[in-house]
């Protein structure tokens, strides 16, 4: 709903400010933009992004399946507006280049889009953090459509919006550093993944744990063999019930991991020792010593109790424009239109953003999580 609200504001601004042939193009895009804003994440499974790696869910795939399924109520509602609307909405959601104008796609998914503006403000509010604030209204009411030499239309911002863009970029930085990548948040994410990985291992070994029918159908079959109704049957209460059932599992590791997660008994974060060769990030010798220490303390399956968390470089940088200038467009960079009409990537207009961009060019960082009772022991292993 938040994305829809922001998109309606963006649409109204563009409709009221553009002229000529651009105005007709904007008015034609109304329904697809608003519908995509409302429905682009309709395919999210239980607990949103958190649960996707556990069961191999791709929410964009399922969003498109749900919207394009003639039997779904969403498809029927959209088709009543005009017959090709479900297809247009799916085109805007797709990760590859859509057939619709590029500026429409950039409002849904880009380096500065309505979705990002919404979740930063919403997550800041509900987490109680004071970091995700920026002048979203100014960003919306100053955006422009700019016709390039090749007659394509791009979304740009005037120089007077530069400070608001910078504020938005740093709001993303602070939210990632203090909320999304917080050690407690990441610790429970890797614990959840370890639990479901353990269950999958038992399945592959021929001794499957108890699975409720809806989860068994979704997890153990190819997505193309699962109907939309079967996918939607798995909800958050289904997942919680499944994990509750595993607290009585005959497999001691699965039982322990499920109990820890539901009882909020998370693991402790450990900074690994520096590596001799930063290009390889090889810590196999140290990991082997940690595994031995875990075994000595009756944590017999070390891979389930020494959890490696990779913080990819793209999550460490709040703004990552396409490095190849010739490949930059408004879906992978933010553009400023100077007072003399020249269009520049925003870091060329604000050189201090170069340092932010360089964060995304660094290598991934790694953290490890172990049971709290093992923290001091592991910290002393070199």
Describe the protein in words.
With 382 residues, the protein is an alpha+beta fold. Helices cover 53% and strands 8% of the residues. It is built from 21 helices and seven strands. The strands form two sheets. The chain has a four-stranded mixed beta sheet. Strands 3-7-4 form a three-stranded antiparallel beta sheet. Strand 1 and strand 2 (153-158) form a beta hairpin. The longest helix is centred in the middle third of the chain and has 22 residues, at 183-204. It is globular.
Radius of gyration: 24 Å
Q: How large a portion of the residues is in β-strands, by DSSP E?
A: 5-15%
Low-confidence stretches: none
Strand order of the largest sheet: 1-2-5-6
Mean pLDDT: 89
Give the topology.
Elements: H1 2-17, H2 20-28, H3 30-39, H4 52-55, H5 59-68, H6 73-81, H7 85-93, H8 102-108, H9 114-127, H10 136-142, E1 144-147, E2 153-158, H11 162-180, H12 183-204, H13 213-219, H14 228-232, H15 236-246, H16 252-262, E3 268-270, H17 284-296, E4 307-311, H18 313-316, E5 335-337, E6 343-345, H19 346-349, H20 354-359, E7 365-370, H21 375-379
Parallel strand pairs: 2-5
Antiparallel strand pairs: 1-2, 3-7, 4-7, 5-6
In short, what is this structure?
With 382 residues, this protein is of the alpha+beta class.
Keywords:
382 residues; alpha+beta; four-stranded mixed β-sheet; three-stranded antiparallel β-sheet; globular
């Amino acid at each position: 709903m938040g994305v829809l609200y922001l998109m309606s504001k963006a649409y109204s601004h563009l409709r009221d400010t553009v002229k000529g042939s651009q105005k007709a193009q904007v008015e034609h895009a109304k329904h697809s933009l608003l519908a995509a804003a409302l429905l682009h994440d309709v395919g999210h499974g239980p607990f949103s992004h958190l649960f996707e790696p556990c069961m191999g869910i791709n929410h964009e795939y399922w969003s498109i399946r749900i919207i394009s399924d003639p039997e779904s109520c969403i498809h029927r509602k959209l088709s009543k507006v005009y017959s090709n609307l479900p297809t247009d909405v799916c085109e805007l959601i797709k990760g590859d280049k859509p057939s619709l104008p590029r500026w429409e796609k950039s409002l849904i998914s880009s380096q500065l889009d309505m979705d990002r503006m919404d979740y930063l403000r919403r997550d800041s509010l509900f987490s109680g953090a004071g970091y995700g604030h920026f002048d979203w209204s100014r960003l919306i009411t100053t955006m422009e459509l700019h016709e390039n030499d090749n007659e394509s239309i791009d979304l740009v911002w005037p120089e007077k919006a530069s400070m608001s863009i910078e504020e938005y970029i740093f709001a993303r930085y602070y939210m990632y550093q203090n909320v999304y990548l917080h050690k407690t948040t990441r610790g429970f994410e890797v614990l959840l993944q370890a639990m479901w990985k353990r269950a999958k291992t038992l399945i592959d070994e021929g001794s499957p744990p108890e699975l409720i029918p809806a989860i068994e159908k979704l997890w153990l079959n190819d997505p193309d063999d699962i109907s939309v109704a079967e996918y939607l049957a798995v909800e958050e209460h289904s997942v919680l019930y499944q994990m509750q059932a595993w607290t009585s599992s005959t497999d001691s590791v699965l039982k322990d991991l499920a109990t820890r997660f539901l009882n909020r008994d998370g693991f402790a974060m450990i900074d690994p020792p520096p590596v001799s060769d930063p290009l390889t990030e090889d810590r196999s010798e140290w990991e082997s010593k940690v595994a031995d220490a875990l075994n000595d303390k009756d944590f017999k399956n070390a891979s389930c109790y020494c959890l490696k968390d990779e913080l990819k470089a793209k999550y460490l940088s709040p703004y990552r424009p396409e490095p190849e200038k010739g490949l930059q467009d408004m879906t992978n960079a933010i553009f400023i239109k100077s007072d003399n009409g020249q269009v520049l990537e925003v870091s060329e207009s604000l050189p201090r953003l170069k340092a932010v961009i360089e964060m995304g060019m660094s290598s991934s960082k790694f953290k490890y999580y172990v049971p709290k009772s093992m923290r001091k022991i592991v910290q002393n292993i070199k």
